[in-house]
Specification:
binds adenosine-5'-triphosphate, T3SS_ATPase_C, alpha/beta, binds magnesium ion, bacterial flagellum protein export, 6-stranded antiparallel β-barrel, elongated
Length: 449
């Protein structure tokens, strides 16, 4: 006969202790490229479930179920497949696709699995588990984009004002200065916390970014997630999810978080690699359909929260061969609330940050700009546009000074505006300083002419 049920704490604890811990195992039956097929208790596996493959020589390889093929589960590893043989045991791990962030994670550097890689000892765990892949707050429960956020970069503050909870993309070819701009924002912008995802970076660059660009002071107010280019696609993708998950944790604590990702293109490439190996059809530039469904799911997670906190998202996009119409750039531009375009020609002139103000857009402008300075901003933009139209002619010497007063002004003003837009890595200017300096420039123009 069964014992009568005991619902006291002690009784319950005993009953939990009585539950048999079952380990469910499958077996490796095939390896194809990056994919491992597992036969066995297929009913216990679902897409996204965690599997641990035991190679039998003391090495275990975490993996994730990405699909099914006939009677087998298809899994993708988080590490290299060295040592995997047919018949290896594969443990179906209890679904633990969650992490437990804590305030003590500030100043730390983690890998995609949320493990510390900075040699500063174990990572304290928080009390609430948060999922790697969360859904964004529903559209109607979200707050509106908040007050202007002082990014401490003149060119952005004045011409492309960013608000708390806004999502901006930085679009540029390789080596044009994306990472440096990102580090300036991470160090100085007026947010409570930065969460930085370095996705698919070169290993050498990670240390350079942490030590030279971010520095000890920047790191102290940041959490950095790293997956270098040599890590498996699943790790690179997971690192992007983890970055957003940590940002969401701090947002739900009511903080204004700046979430940065360098770069979204590498996330898309990781998703492409995963898609292609699971048999998805390639479309433009080999990108698979899931790339374009995953991108909005990832980027939408940034933004204002349902309550107090916000996530301001800054995402870099590598535009291959400086082609600003390549598919990932196009898709990302459509999802975000603004784009910052950086140009090689400007960087080659030595004007950093190499932002092309005329080609960049912040969709919260002009509402977010200080109305008192709006006429100055508009005037300066006009001058830049006029100069940009005439630039070729001026350079060729085909423009005769005096033929058009507006063009003459634009030519005179050009070096001053260039100077205004130039900002050294370690220079910090507030939004107010930027406005006043721009006003001065526009005023001298008015008095001189
Ligand atoms: N504000 C700046 N002041 C001075 N130099 C800068 C500035 N921004 C960028 N640079 C120069 O440009 C170089 C490349 O910058 P960065 O590494 O940020 O480019 P990137 O776009 O991230 O490149 P990649 O695509 O290779 O990651 C830097 O090493 C530095 O010399
Ligand atoms: Mg870079």
């Amino acid at each position: 006969m069964r014992k009568p049920k005991d619902f006291t704490m002690k009784g319950l604890a005993e009953r939990i202790g009585e539950i048999e811990r079952v380990n469910i195992y499958g077996r490796v039956v095939g390896v194809r490229g990056l994919m491992v097929e597992i036969a066995g208790p297929i009913h216990a596996m679902s897409v996204g479930a965690r599997i641990v493959i035991e190679t039998g020589v003391g090495r275990t390889i975490p993996a994730e179920v990405v699909g099914f093929n006939g009677d087998n589960a298809v899994v993708m590893p988080f590490a290299s497949l060295d040592g995997v043989r047919r018949g290896c045991r594969a443990l179906v791990a209890s679904a633990s696709d969650k992490i437990r962030p804590a305030a003590a994670w500030l100043g730390r550097v983690l890998n995609a699995l949320g493990e510390p890689i900075d040699g500063k000892g174990p990572l304290p765990q928080g009390s609430t588990p948060v999922p790697y892949r969360n859904s964004p707050p529903s559209a109607h429960s979200r707050q509106r984009v908040g007050q202007p956020l002082d990014l401490k970069v003149r060119a952005l503050n004045t011409f492309l004002t960013c608000c708390r909870g806004q999502r901006l993309g930085i679009f540029a070819g390789s080596g044009v200065g994306k990472s440096v701009l990102l580090s300036m924002l991470a160090r100085n912008a007026d947010a409570d916390i930065s969460v930085i995802g370095l996705i698919g970076e070169r290993g050498r660059e990670v240390q350079e970014f942490l030590q030279d660009d971010l520095g000890a002071e920047g790191l102290a107010r940041s959490v950095v997630v790293v997956a270098t280019s040599d890590e498996p696609a699943l790790m690179r993708r997971q690192a992007a999810y983890l970055t957003l998950a940590i940002a969401e944790f701090f947002r739900d604590e009511g903080r204004d978080v700046m979430c940065m990702m360098d770069s979204v293109t590498r996330f898309a490439m990781a998703q492409r690699e995963i898609g292609l190996s699971t048999g998805e059809p390639p479309t433009t530039k080999g990108y698979t359909p899931t790339v374009f469904t995953e991108l909005p799911r990832l980027l939408e997670r940034a933004g204002p929260g349902a309550d107090k906190g916000t996530i301001t998202g800054i995402f870099t996009v590598l535009v291959d061969g400086d082609d600003h119409n390549e598919p990932v750039a196009d898709a990302v531009r459509g999802i975000l609330d603004g784009h910052i375009v950086m140009e090689r020609a400007i960087a080659e002139r030595g004007r950093y940050p190499a932002i092309n103000v005329l080609k960049s857009v912040s969709r919260t402008m002009p509402k977010s700009a200080d109305p008192a300075f709006l006429p100055d901003i508009t005037r300066a933009r006009q001058m830049m546009a006029t100069y940009s139209d005439m630039e070729e002619l001026v350079r060729l010497g085909a423009y005769r000074a005096g033929s058009n007063a507006e063009v003459d002004e634009a030519i005179r003003l050009n070096p001053v505006i260039e100077d205004f837009l130039r900002q050294a890595k370690d220079e910090v200017t507030s939004i107010g300083d930027g406005y006043r300096r721009l006003q001065q420039i526009v005023n001298t123009l008015a008095t001189e002419s």
